[in-house]
Amino acid sequence: TLAETLLLRPLPYRDATRLVLVWQTGPHDYGNEIGASLLDYFDWRREAKQLSSLAAYGKQGFNLTGGDGAEYVEGQVVSANFFDTLGVTPAIGRTFRGDEEQRVVILSDGLWRRHYGADRAIAGKSIELSGQSYTVIGVMPRRWRAPERGELWVPLSFYTGNWRVFRSTHPLTLIGRLAPGASVGAAESELRPIAQTIWGGGLWSGWSVRFEPL
Questions:
Q1: Nearest 5 degrees, angle CA 36-CA 38-CA 42?
Q2: Minimal CA–CA distance to 195: which of 20, 22, 21, 19?
Q3: Cα separation of 69 and 120, whole Å?
């Protein structure tokens, strides 16, 4: 099983060895890895030159109604460049655009088959998520999976958590793609002083940044 997973079925992302998870790490050696705030993400994405792209995602559940009954679905809110960073294209439709401000959603293959009967004309149709209407713009490939469990994806701007202006809450996981010629060590060295300047000491004194190959 291990050989099949590692050798015969590699991660379903383009150039997966260039992908890294970006964690904030505390001054102690246990239980000290956390994600990022929205403000951290914006700052790091702007400043990190050793990364060709940096994406963010966070968990969010939805009540899906209509279609074949109603169910609770685990989903994710993601930055517009999430799928491009991973290097994947949908089997049907498209991914998010950088200027996406509408309520749009991308479905997993499993949810599309289970709830919508594999309707190939699903793109452009409206579905209801937690009482709000979203337009389906894409369906992901059958054997593709996200870095974390999720059956649908919506733009980050529609996250319902109360954290958009606070740097002290860290609900987002960041995933980056190393730029050509860049290494994990070089990317970490670049981001650490940027992070320290952003945090400004105080509560975050001694915290740093660690990159983990996906």
A1: 100
A2: 22
A3: 19
Least Cα distance to 82 among 144, 133, 129 occurs for: 144
User: Rounded CA gap, 35 and 172, in Å?
Assistant: 5
The 10s digit of each residue's pLDDT in 181-193 is: 999 999 998 888 8
Pairing of strands 132-139, 104-107: parallel
Positive or negative: CA dihedral 144, 146, 151, 152: negative
pLDDT of residue 161: 60
What b/e string do you get for 174-209 counting C-beta neighbours within 10 Å, with b at 16 or more?
bbbbbbeebeeeebbebbeeebbeebeeeebeebbb
Q: How far is residue 11's CA from residue 177's CA, in Å, rounded to a whole number?
A: 14
Question: What are the φ and ψ backbone dihedral angles of 29, each rounded to 5 degrees?
Answer: -105, 10
Cα 196 from Cα 199, distance rounded (Å): 5
Helix axes 184-199, 38-47, angle to 10 degrees: 130
Taking Cα atoms as reference points, which of 121, 176, 175 lies closest to residue 148?
175
CA 144, CA 163: separation in Å to the nearest integer?
30
- What is the distance between the alpha carbons of residues 146 and 59, in angstroms, rounded to a whole number? 12
Given a cut of 70, whether residue 210 has pLDDT beyond it is: yes
Q: What digits encode the pLDDT tens for the residues 160-177?
A: 665 555 666 778 999 999
Q: What is the CA radius of gyration of the chain?
A: 18
